Amino acid sequence: MSADVPDIDAFTRPYWDAAADGRLLLRRCRACGRPHHYPREFCPYCWSEDVVWERANGRATLYTWSVVHRNDLPPFGARVPYVAAVVDLAEGPRMMTEVVGCAEADLRIGMELTVTFRREGEGPAVPVFRTARLSGGGQS
Ligand SMILES: [Zn+2]
C-alpha cells in the first residue's frame, strides 16, 4: 500500500467507479444547493446529509500550484518533479490535484484546465488536470 492509493469504501466507490469510466463526480447538497469536493457523506456547509452525486463537466481553472521536486512517499518519489495544484472546478468546489503535461513556465493562475485520468498499475484512475487548449506540443 502507498500513500497515493485512496481509501475506497462503500461510500466513495461510486466516485472511483466513475473515475475509471473517465467521469469526475461531485457531491451536491440538496438542502443548500452547494457542491463540494472531495466527497463527504454530509454537506460541509450546512451539515445536511441530503447530498447526492453529480457529474462535473470536467472544466476547471488553476488557482495555485507548487512544483514538488522531492517527495519520499512512494509512488511520488519516482514521479518528481510534478505539479501539485489547487483548481477551481467550473461548478465551484476547489480541488487538490495535479496538473500534467504542462511545463512549469507555462502555468498561469486562472488558466483553463480540463480533467483527465491517470491510471497506474492496479490502482484506481486518479483525476488530474491538463491544459484545456492543445498547444501543439504533442504532449498527451
Ligand atoms: Zn448544504
Automatic annotation (TrEMBL):
SUPFAM superfamilies: Nucleic acid-binding proteins. Residues 16-51 form the ChsH2 rubredoxin-like zinc ribbon domain. InterPro entries: ChsH2_C, ChsH2_Znr, NA-bd_OB-fold, Thioester_dehydratase-like. Residues 53-118 form the ChsH2 C-terminal OB-fold domain. Gene3D superfamilies: 6.10.30.10. Pfam families: OB_ChsH2_C (PF01796), zf-ChsH2 (PF12172). It comes from the Bacteria. This is Nucleic acid-binding protein.
